[in-house]
Protein backbone atom coordinates (compact mmCIF):
# COMPACT_ATOMS: atom_id res chain seq x y z
CA UNK A 1 0.00 0.00 0.00
CA UNK A 2 2.79 2.42 0.95
CA UNK A 3 4.22 1.90 -2.55
CA UNK A 4 1.13 3.46 -4.10
CA UNK A 5 0.65 6.25 -1.61
CA UNK A 6 1.64 9.73 -2.75
CA UNK A 7 4.97 11.29 -1.78
CA UNK A 8 3.20 14.60 -1.29
CA UNK A 9 -0.36 15.70 -0.64
CA UNK A 10 -1.32 19.38 -0.77
CA UNK A 11 -4.75 19.79 0.77
CA UNK A 12 -7.04 22.62 1.80
CA UNK A 13 -6.29 24.68 -1.31
CA UNK A 14 -8.74 27.61 -1.30
CA UNK A 15 -8.49 28.07 -5.03
CA UNK A 16 -6.25 26.39 -7.55
CA UNK A 17 -5.66 28.55 -10.65
CA UNK A 18 -3.95 27.12 -13.70
CA UNK A 19 -3.91 27.30 -17.48
CA UNK A 20 -4.26 23.92 -19.18
CA UNK A 21 -2.55 22.19 -22.08
CA UNK A 22 0.90 21.81 -23.58
CA UNK A 23 0.86 24.63 -26.15
CA UNK A 24 1.19 28.40 -25.91
CA UNK A 25 -2.23 30.05 -25.62
CA UNK A 26 -2.97 33.11 -27.78
CA UNK A 27 -5.98 35.35 -28.33
CA UNK A 28 -8.94 34.44 -26.10
CA UNK A 29 -6.97 31.43 -24.87
CA UNK A 30 -4.61 33.77 -23.04
CA UNK A 31 -7.26 34.31 -20.34
CA UNK A 32 -8.40 30.68 -20.20
CA UNK A 33 -7.69 29.77 -16.60
CA UNK A 34 -9.16 26.77 -14.84
CA UNK A 35 -10.21 27.56 -11.27
CA UNK A 36 -10.85 24.71 -8.82
CA UNK A 37 -12.15 25.63 -5.38
CA UNK A 38 -11.40 23.50 -2.30
CA UNK A 39 -8.81 21.56 -4.23
CA UNK A 40 -6.06 19.08 -3.45
CA UNK A 41 -3.04 17.79 -5.38
CA UNK A 42 -1.08 14.57 -5.01
CA UNK A 43 2.45 13.97 -6.24
CA UNK A 44 4.52 10.86 -6.83
CA UNK A 45 8.16 10.78 -7.99
CA UNK A 46 8.12 14.52 -8.64
CA UNK A 47 5.11 14.36 -10.96
CA UNK A 48 1.48 15.40 -10.36
CA UNK A 49 -0.74 12.31 -10.03
CA UNK A 50 -4.14 13.69 -8.98
CA UNK A 51 -5.73 17.14 -9.12
CA UNK A 52 -9.07 16.97 -7.38
CA UNK A 53 -11.63 18.79 -5.32
CA UNK A 54 -12.19 18.19 -1.62
CA UNK A 55 -15.14 15.80 -1.96
CA UNK A 56 -12.78 13.25 -3.55
CA UNK A 57 -10.04 13.63 -0.96
CA UNK A 58 -11.39 10.64 1.02
CA UNK A 59 -10.15 8.34 -1.79
CA UNK A 60 -6.56 9.40 -1.16
CA UNK A 61 -4.77 7.28 1.40
CA UNK A 62 -1.56 8.92 2.61
CA UNK A 63 1.26 6.56 3.54
CA UNK A 64 3.63 6.87 6.49
CA UNK A 65 6.12 8.77 4.35
CA UNK A 66 3.62 11.04 2.61
CA UNK A 67 4.41 14.71 3.25
CA UNK A 68 1.13 16.53 3.86
CA UNK A 69 0.94 20.28 3.33
CA UNK A 70 -2.06 22.28 4.44
CA UNK A 71 -2.43 25.20 2.01
CA UNK A 72 -4.54 27.02 4.59
CA UNK A 73 -7.34 27.88 2.18
CA UNK A 74 -4.98 29.98 0.05
CA UNK A 75 -4.27 30.40 -3.67
CA UNK A 76 -2.18 27.79 -5.50
CA UNK A 77 -0.71 28.24 -9.00
CA UNK A 78 1.89 26.53 -11.15
CA UNK A 79 5.50 27.46 -10.39
CA UNK A 80 6.45 30.57 -12.36
CA UNK A 81 8.64 30.33 -15.46
CA UNK A 82 11.04 33.20 -16.22
CA UNK A 83 11.67 32.78 -19.93
CA UNK A 84 14.23 35.56 -20.48
CA UNK A 85 17.17 36.29 -18.17
CA UNK A 86 20.82 37.30 -18.47
CA UNK A 87 21.70 35.37 -15.34
CA UNK A 88 25.43 34.91 -15.90
CA UNK A 89 27.51 38.00 -15.21
CA UNK A 90 29.97 39.54 -12.82
CA UNK A 91 29.60 43.05 -11.44
CA UNK A 92 26.51 45.16 -10.85
CA UNK A 93 26.26 48.57 -12.55
CA UNK A 94 24.70 50.84 -9.94
CA UNK A 95 26.84 53.79 -11.19
CA UNK A 96 24.71 53.87 -14.36
CA UNK A 97 21.69 54.91 -12.33
CA UNK A 98 23.02 58.42 -11.70
CA UNK A 99 24.00 58.78 -15.39
CA UNK A 100 20.48 57.77 -16.28
CA UNK A 101 19.00 60.29 -13.88
CA UNK A 102 21.11 62.97 -15.59
CA UNK A 103 19.41 62.05 -18.86
CA UNK A 104 21.96 59.77 -20.48
CA UNK A 105 20.37 57.07 -22.64
CA UNK A 106 21.05 53.34 -22.44
CA UNK A 107 22.54 53.14 -25.96
CA UNK A 108 24.75 56.20 -25.30
CA UNK A 109 26.26 54.49 -22.27
CA UNK A 110 26.92 51.39 -24.42
CA UNK A 111 28.50 53.49 -27.18
CA UNK A 112 30.94 54.97 -24.62
CA UNK A 113 32.14 51.46 -23.75
CA UNK A 114 29.95 51.17 -20.65
CA UNK A 115 26.74 49.20 -20.25
CA UNK A 116 27.00 45.65 -21.54
CA UNK A 117 30.71 46.20 -22.36
CA UNK A 118 31.43 47.11 -18.73
CA UNK A 119 29.89 43.80 -17.63
CA UNK A 120 31.88 41.99 -20.34
CA UNK A 121 35.16 43.26 -18.83
CA UNK A 122 34.19 41.99 -15.37
CA UNK A 123 32.73 38.71 -16.59
CA UNK A 124 35.89 37.89 -18.53
CA UNK A 125 37.93 38.38 -15.34
CA UNK A 126 35.64 36.18 -13.23
CA UNK A 127 36.28 32.47 -12.72
CA UNK A 128 33.70 29.81 -13.51
CA UNK A 129 33.13 29.32 -9.77
CA UNK A 130 32.52 33.03 -9.22
CA UNK A 131 29.96 33.13 -12.01
CA UNK A 132 28.22 30.08 -10.59
CA UNK A 133 28.19 31.57 -7.07
CA UNK A 134 26.71 34.88 -8.34
CA UNK A 135 24.09 33.09 -10.40
CA UNK A 136 23.11 30.74 -7.56
CA UNK A 137 22.44 33.73 -5.33
CA UNK A 138 20.11 35.21 -7.93
CA UNK A 139 18.44 31.83 -8.46
CA UNK A 140 17.76 31.70 -4.70
CA UNK A 141 16.00 35.06 -4.99
CA UNK A 142 14.02 33.93 -8.02
CA UNK A 143 12.90 30.79 -6.24
CA UNK A 144 11.84 32.76 -3.14
CA UNK A 145 9.66 34.84 -5.46
CA UNK A 146 8.04 31.79 -7.04
CA UNK A 147 10.18 31.03 -10.11
CA UNK A 148 10.79 27.30 -10.57
CA UNK A 149 12.22 27.30 -14.13
CA UNK A 150 14.23 29.99 -15.89
CA UNK A 151 16.02 30.58 -19.12
CA UNK A 152 19.57 31.98 -18.96
CA UNK A 153 21.61 33.61 -21.70
CA UNK A 154 25.35 33.86 -22.17
CA UNK A 155 26.49 37.10 -23.77
CA UNK A 156 28.89 38.82 -21.39
CA UNK A 157 31.89 36.76 -22.55
CA UNK A 158 31.92 37.72 -26.24
CA UNK A 159 34.90 35.51 -27.06
CA UNK A 160 35.00 31.75 -27.44
CA UNK A 161 36.56 31.01 -24.08
CA UNK A 162 34.35 33.28 -21.99
CA UNK A 163 31.13 32.39 -23.79
CA UNK A 164 31.89 28.71 -23.12
CA UNK A 165 32.68 29.58 -19.49
CA UNK A 166 29.31 31.35 -19.17
CA UNK A 167 27.40 28.42 -20.68
CA UNK A 168 29.26 25.98 -18.44
CA UNK A 169 28.22 28.13 -15.46
CA UNK A 170 24.59 27.72 -16.57
CA UNK A 171 25.05 23.96 -16.78
CA UNK A 172 26.48 23.86 -13.25
CA UNK A 173 23.65 25.97 -11.86
CA UNK A 174 21.07 23.76 -13.50
CA UNK A 175 22.75 20.78 -11.90
CA UNK A 176 23.01 22.12 -8.37
CA UNK A 177 20.09 24.52 -7.97
CA UNK A 178 16.45 23.44 -7.56
CA UNK A 179 15.41 25.91 -10.30
CA UNK A 180 15.69 24.31 -13.76
CA UNK A 181 17.93 26.55 -15.88
CA UNK A 182 17.56 26.41 -19.69
CA UNK A 183 20.60 27.67 -21.67
CA UNK A 184 20.66 30.15 -24.57
CA UNK A 185 23.79 31.14 -26.49
CA UNK A 186 23.94 34.91 -27.02
CA UNK A 187 27.43 35.58 -28.35
CA UNK A 188 25.75 38.29 -30.45
CA UNK A 189 24.77 40.39 -27.42
CA UNK A 190 27.15 43.24 -28.39
CA UNK A 191 30.22 43.81 -30.54
CA UNK A 192 33.19 43.51 -28.16
CA UNK A 193 35.61 46.45 -27.93
CA UNK A 194 38.45 44.64 -29.68
CA UNK A 195 36.25 44.17 -32.78
CA UNK A 196 34.71 47.63 -32.77
CA UNK A 197 36.43 48.49 -36.06
CA UNK A 198 35.98 45.01 -37.49
CA UNK A 199 32.46 43.77 -36.83
CA UNK A 200 32.67 41.40 -39.84
CA UNK A 201 35.44 39.47 -38.15
CA UNK A 202 33.39 39.19 -34.94
CA UNK A 203 30.45 37.85 -36.94
CA UNK A 204 32.80 35.28 -38.46
CA UNK A 205 33.94 34.28 -34.98
CA UNK A 206 30.34 33.84 -33.75
CA UNK A 207 29.26 31.88 -36.81
CA UNK A 208 32.33 29.79 -37.57
CA UNK A 209 33.79 29.17 -34.14
CA UNK A 210 31.35 29.82 -31.31
CA UNK A 211 28.11 28.34 -32.68
CA UNK A 212 29.64 25.08 -33.94
CA UNK A 213 31.47 24.58 -30.62
CA UNK A 214 28.43 25.41 -28.46
CA UNK A 215 26.31 23.03 -30.54
CA UNK A 216 28.93 20.28 -30.53
CA UNK A 217 29.28 20.41 -26.74
CA UNK A 218 25.48 20.67 -26.30
CA UNK A 219 25.86 23.79 -24.18
CA UNK A 220 22.74 25.62 -25.41
CA UNK A 221 19.30 24.96 -26.87
CA UNK A 222 18.62 28.43 -28.26
CA UNK A 223 20.51 31.17 -30.10
CA UNK A 224 19.59 34.80 -29.42
CA UNK A 225 20.79 38.09 -30.99
CA UNK A 226 20.50 41.73 -29.85
CA UNK A 227 19.03 43.20 -33.05
CA UNK A 228 19.38 46.91 -32.35
CA UNK A 229 20.72 50.13 -33.84
CA UNK A 230 24.50 50.18 -33.45
CA UNK A 231 24.57 46.53 -32.37
CA UNK A 232 23.43 43.91 -34.96
CA UNK A 233 21.23 44.94 -37.87
CA UNK A 234 18.48 42.87 -39.49
CA UNK A 235 20.68 41.07 -42.04
CA UNK A 236 23.46 40.35 -39.52
CA UNK A 237 20.86 38.99 -37.08
CA UNK A 238 19.27 36.81 -39.77
CA UNK A 239 22.70 35.45 -40.73
CA UNK A 240 23.55 34.48 -37.13
CA UNK A 241 20.14 32.96 -36.37
CA UNK A 242 20.16 30.90 -39.58
CA UNK A 243 23.63 29.64 -38.81
CA UNK A 244 22.51 28.75 -35.27
CA UNK A 245 19.51 26.91 -36.64
CA UNK A 246 21.73 24.94 -39.06
CA UNK A 247 23.56 23.72 -35.95
CA UNK A 248 20.34 22.81 -34.12
CA UNK A 249 19.99 25.97 -32.01
CA UNK A 250 16.41 27.27 -31.99
CA UNK A 251 16.24 31.02 -32.87
CA UNK A 252 15.12 33.71 -30.43
CA UNK A 253 15.54 37.45 -30.92
CA UNK A 254 15.83 40.69 -28.94
CA UNK A 255 13.56 42.60 -31.31
CA UNK A 256 12.50 46.25 -31.54
CA UNK A 257 13.57 47.01 -27.95
CA UNK A 258 14.80 50.59 -28.26
CA UNK A 259 14.57 51.34 -31.98
CA UNK A 260 11.98 50.08 -34.49
CA UNK A 261 14.16 47.82 -36.63
CA UNK A 262 11.72 45.30 -38.14
CA UNK A 263 12.80 42.70 -35.60
CA UNK A 264 9.31 41.27 -35.08
CA UNK A 265 9.00 40.47 -38.78
CA UNK A 266 12.50 39.00 -38.85
CA UNK A 267 11.63 36.73 -35.92
CA UNK A 268 8.60 35.47 -37.83
CA UNK A 269 10.62 35.03 -41.04
CA UNK A 270 13.36 32.94 -39.45
CA UNK A 271 10.81 30.83 -37.56
CA UNK A 272 12.01 32.02 -34.15
CA UNK A 273 10.22 30.36 -31.24
CA UNK A 274 9.96 33.78 -29.59
CA UNK A 275 10.68 37.46 -30.10
CA UNK A 276 11.50 39.46 -26.99
CA UNK A 277 10.90 43.08 -25.86
CA UNK A 278 8.94 44.28 -28.94
CA UNK A 279 8.36 47.76 -27.51
CA UNK A 280 8.43 49.25 -31.00
CA UNK A 281 7.02 46.29 -32.95
CA UNK A 282 4.92 47.52 -35.89
CA UNK A 283 1.44 46.32 -36.86
CA UNK A 284 3.03 44.50 -39.76
CA UNK A 285 5.52 42.78 -37.43
CA UNK A 286 2.76 41.75 -35.01
CA UNK A 287 0.69 40.32 -37.88
CA UNK A 288 3.69 38.38 -39.14
CA UNK A 289 4.26 36.96 -35.65
CA UNK A 290 0.61 35.92 -35.33
CA UNK A 291 0.77 34.12 -38.68
CA UNK A 292 4.03 32.38 -37.85
CA UNK A 293 2.98 31.45 -34.29
CA UNK A 294 5.91 33.35 -32.76
CA UNK A 295 5.56 33.86 -29.00
CA UNK A 296 5.99 37.44 -27.75
CA UNK A 297 8.14 37.50 -24.62
CA UNK A 298 7.41 40.92 -23.14
CA UNK A 299 9.63 42.53 -20.51
CA UNK A 300 7.71 45.38 -18.85
CA UNK A 301 10.27 45.63 -16.03
CA UNK A 302 12.79 46.82 -18.63
CA UNK A 303 10.44 49.49 -19.99
CA UNK A 304 9.83 50.64 -16.42
CA UNK A 305 13.52 50.68 -15.54
CA UNK A 306 14.78 52.33 -18.76
CA UNK A 307 11.94 54.85 -18.79
CA UNK A 308 10.94 53.57 -22.24
CA UNK A 309 7.47 53.10 -23.66
CA UNK A 310 5.55 49.91 -22.98
CA UNK A 311 5.02 47.20 -25.60
CA UNK A 312 1.53 46.98 -27.10
CA UNK A 313 0.52 43.82 -25.27
CA UNK A 314 -3.22 44.31 -25.87
CA UNK A 315 -2.72 44.68 -29.63
CA UNK A 316 -0.65 41.50 -29.63
CA UNK A 317 -3.20 39.51 -27.64
CA UNK A 318 -6.00 40.75 -29.88
CA UNK A 319 -3.97 39.75 -32.95
CA UNK A 320 -3.68 36.22 -31.54
CA UNK A 321 0.01 36.35 -30.58
CA UNK A 322 0.66 34.28 -27.43
CA UNK A 323 2.22 36.59 -24.84
CA UNK A 324 4.74 35.50 -22.22
CA UNK A 325 6.24 37.78 -19.56
CA UNK A 326 9.76 37.64 -18.14
CA UNK A 327 12.13 39.66 -15.95
CA UNK A 328 15.00 40.20 -18.45
CA UNK A 329 17.07 39.99 -15.24
CA UNK A 330 20.45 41.63 -15.99
CA UNK A 331 22.76 44.19 -14.33
CA UNK A 332 21.86 47.06 -16.71
CA UNK A 333 18.34 47.38 -18.01
CA UNK A 334 16.50 45.19 -15.49
CA UNK A 335 18.27 44.45 -12.21
CA UNK A 336 15.50 42.42 -10.57
CA UNK A 337 14.93 38.72 -10.03
CA UNK A 338 11.27 39.21 -9.12
CA UNK A 339 8.81 37.93 -11.69
CA UNK A 340 6.08 39.00 -9.24
CA UNK A 341 7.02 42.64 -9.75
CA UNK A 342 6.92 42.10 -13.51
CA UNK A 343 3.43 40.60 -13.17
CA UNK A 344 2.27 43.71 -11.30
CA UNK A 345 3.75 46.08 -13.90
CA UNK A 346 2.22 44.06 -16.76
CA UNK A 347 -1.21 44.19 -15.18
CA UNK A 348 -1.14 47.94 -14.57
CA UNK A 349 0.82 49.20 -17.59
CA UNK A 350 -0.12 46.67 -20.28
CA UNK A 351 -3.67 46.38 -18.89
CA UNK A 352 -3.41 42.62 -18.93
CA UNK A 353 -5.92 40.84 -16.69
CA UNK A 354 -4.71 38.61 -13.83
CA UNK A 355 -5.76 35.56 -15.89
CA UNK A 356 -3.80 36.72 -18.95
CA UNK A 357 -0.74 37.44 -16.82
CA UNK A 358 -0.92 34.05 -15.12
CA UNK A 359 -0.87 32.31 -18.52
CA UNK A 360 2.01 34.58 -19.56
CA UNK A 361 4.27 33.57 -16.64
CA UNK A 362 3.41 29.86 -16.65
CA UNK A 363 2.16 28.02 -19.77
CA UNK A 364 3.26 30.57 -22.40
CA UNK A 365 6.61 31.15 -20.71
CA UNK A 366 7.21 27.40 -20.59
CA UNK A 367 6.29 27.17 -24.29
CA UNK A 368 8.77 29.98 -25.07
CA UNK A 369 11.58 27.74 -23.83
CA UNK A 370 10.21 24.42 -25.11
CA UNK A 371 9.16 23.17 -21.68
CA UNK A 372 5.36 23.29 -21.95
CA UNK A 373 5.01 19.51 -22.05
CA UNK A 374 6.57 19.17 -18.58
CA UNK A 375 5.79 22.35 -16.65
CA UNK A 376 3.70 25.56 -16.71
CA UNK A 377 0.35 24.05 -15.66
CA UNK A 378 -0.99 21.98 -12.75
CA UNK A 379 -2.13 18.86 -14.57
CA UNK A 380 -1.64 15.14 -14.10
CA UNK A 381 1.64 14.05 -15.66
CA UNK A 382 3.41 17.40 -15.37
CA UNK A 383 6.22 18.15 -12.95
CA UNK A 384 4.98 19.12 -9.48
CA UNK A 385 6.24 22.73 -9.79
CA UNK A 386 3.80 24.57 -7.54
CA UNK A 387 3.47 27.84 -5.60
CA UNK A 388 1.27 28.35 -2.53
CA UNK A 389 0.60 32.08 -2.11
CA UNK A 390 -0.22 34.11 0.94
CA UNK A 391 -3.29 35.30 -0.96
CA UNK A 392 -6.95 34.29 -0.93
CA UNK A 393 -7.41 34.50 -4.71
CA UNK A 394 -5.67 35.35 -7.99
CA UNK A 395 -6.71 39.01 -8.03
CA UNK A 396 -5.02 39.59 -4.68
CA UNK A 397 -1.47 39.12 -5.98
CA UNK A 398 -2.05 41.88 -8.54
CA UNK A 399 -3.56 44.17 -5.98
CA UNK A 400 -1.22 43.89 -3.00
CA UNK A 401 2.07 44.77 -4.68
CA UNK A 402 5.73 45.41 -3.92
CA UNK A 403 6.04 42.64 -1.32
CA UNK A 404 6.74 38.96 -1.71
CA UNK A 405 3.46 37.06 -1.43
CA UNK A 406 4.93 33.60 -2.00
CA UNK A 407 4.38 31.30 0.98
CA UNK A 408 5.63 27.88 -0.16
CA UNK A 409 7.43 26.71 -3.30
CA UNK A 410 7.46 23.09 -4.45
CA UNK A 411 9.85 22.00 -7.18
CA UNK A 412 9.50 18.52 -8.67
CA UNK A 413 7.48 17.51 -5.63
CA UNK A 414 10.00 18.75 -3.08
CA UNK A 415 9.34 21.66 -0.74
CA UNK A 416 12.14 24.14 -1.52
CA UNK A 417 10.80 27.35 0.05
CA UNK A 418 8.73 27.33 3.21
O1 LIG B 1 17.66 42.65 -22.78
N1 LIG B 1 19.24 44.42 -24.68
C1 LIG B 1 20.21 43.73 -24.46
N2 LIG B 1 20.42 43.04 -23.35
C2 LIG B 1 19.80 43.29 -22.11
C3 LIG B 1 20.54 44.32 -21.34
C4 LIG B 1 21.85 43.85 -20.93
C5 LIG B 1 22.63 44.84 -20.11
O2 LIG B 1 22.36 46.03 -20.08
O3 LIG B 1 23.59 44.35 -19.48
C6 LIG B 1 18.33 43.58 -22.33
O4 LIG B 1 17.82 44.67 -22.05
FE1 LIG C 1 17.39 40.69 -22.62
UniProtKB/TrEMBL annotation:
Its cofactor is Zn(2+); Fe(3+). Residues 273-416 form the Amidohydrolase-related domain. It is found in: Cytoplasm. One of its GO terms (molecular function) is imidazolonepropionase activity. One of its GO terms (biological process) is L-histidine catabolic process to glutamate and formamide. Binds 1 zinc or iron ion per subunit. It catalyses: 4-imidazolone-5-propanoate + H2O = N-formimidoyl-L-glutamate. Pathway: Amino-acid degradation; L-histidine degradation into L-glutamate; N-formimidoyl-L-glutamate from L-histidine: step 3/3. One of its GO terms (cellular component) is cytoplasm. Residues 68-94 form the Amidohydrolase domain. Gene3D superfamilies: Metal-dependent hydrolases (3.20.20.140), Urease, subunit C, domain 1 (2.30.40.10). N-formimidoyl-L-glutamate binds at residues 156, 330, 332. Keywords: Cytoplasm, Histidine metabolism, Hydrolase, Iron, Metal-binding, Zinc. Fe(3+) binds at residues 84, 86, 254, 328. It is an enzyme of class 3 (hydrolase). Its EC number is 3.5.2.7. CDD domains: Imidazolone-5PH (cd01296). Zn(2+) binds at residues 84, 86, 254, 328. The keyword Metal-binding applies. 4-imidazolone-5-propanoate binds at residues 93, 156, 189, 257, 333. Catalyzes the hydrolytic cleavage of the carbon-nitrogen bond in imidazolone-5-propanoate to yield N-formimidoyl-L-glutamate. It is the third step in the universal histidine degradation pathway. HAMAP family: HutI. Belongs to the metallo-dependent hydrolases superfamily. HutI family. NCBIfam families: hutI. This is Imidazolonepropionase. The gene is hutI.
Amino acid sequence: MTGNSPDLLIKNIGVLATPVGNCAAGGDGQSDIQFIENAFITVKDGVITVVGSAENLAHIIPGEKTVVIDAGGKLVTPGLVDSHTHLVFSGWRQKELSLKLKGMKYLEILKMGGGILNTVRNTRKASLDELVANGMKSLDRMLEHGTTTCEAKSGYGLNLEDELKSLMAIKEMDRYHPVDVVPTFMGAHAVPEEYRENKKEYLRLVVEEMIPRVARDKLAEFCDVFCEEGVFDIEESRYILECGRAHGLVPKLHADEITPMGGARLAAEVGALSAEHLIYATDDGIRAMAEAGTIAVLLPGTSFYLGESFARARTMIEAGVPVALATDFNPGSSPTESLQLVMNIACLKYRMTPEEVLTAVTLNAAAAINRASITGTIEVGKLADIVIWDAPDLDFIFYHYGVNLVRTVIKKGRVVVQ
